[in-house]
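Structure in, sequence out. Go:
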């Protein structure tokens, strides 16, 4: 079942790279008591994700925060090392937190997986964005396959 507006996010564990190496991030703790702009991409370093999706959130980080977003986070079914390298190469430090969903557990739990096997990518998370307040989905924007419209930072700004 796909998550919907008004639903509480399921418990999941992400990973991120810190100065101490990889660390687990509990979703209940991460989303508690604040507003998070979360977006998911099919894969780090992939064309649309690298040219448009992540850069849009980096560029609009200040505007999103001015509208009440406490943190911006990007997730993908990649390992924490790849997510960290992608974030660094894109200049995301201090603007977008890179959360690895290495096994796709979060994507499965929210019912937003896609089959990327024809591209050699296996099961991945769909392209989507959501505004999460204190662990509850306030807005959910799921892209149609191959599209990049409703999950953008620009679209999200209009929702805040």
């Amino acid at each position: 079942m796909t998550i919907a507006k008004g639903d509480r996010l399921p418990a999941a564990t992400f990973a991120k790279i810190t100065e101490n190496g990889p660390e687990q991030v509990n979703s209940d703790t991460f989303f508690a008591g604040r507003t998070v702009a979360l977006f998911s991409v099919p894969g780090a370093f992939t064309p649309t994700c690298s040219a448009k999706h992540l850069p849009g959130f980096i560029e609009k980080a200040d505007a999103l925060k001015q509208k009440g977003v406490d943190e911006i986070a990007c997730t993908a079914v990649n390992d924490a090392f790849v997510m960290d390298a992608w974030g660094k190469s894109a200049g995301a430090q201090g603007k977008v937190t890179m959360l690895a969903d290495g096994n796709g557990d979060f994507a499965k739990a929210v019912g937003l997986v896609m089959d990327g096997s024809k591209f050699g990518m296996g099961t991945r998370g769909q392209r989507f964005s959501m505004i999460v307040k204190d662990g509850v989905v306030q807005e959910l924007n799921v892209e149609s396959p191959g599209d990049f419209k409703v999950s953008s930072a620009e679209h999200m700004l209009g929702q805040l």
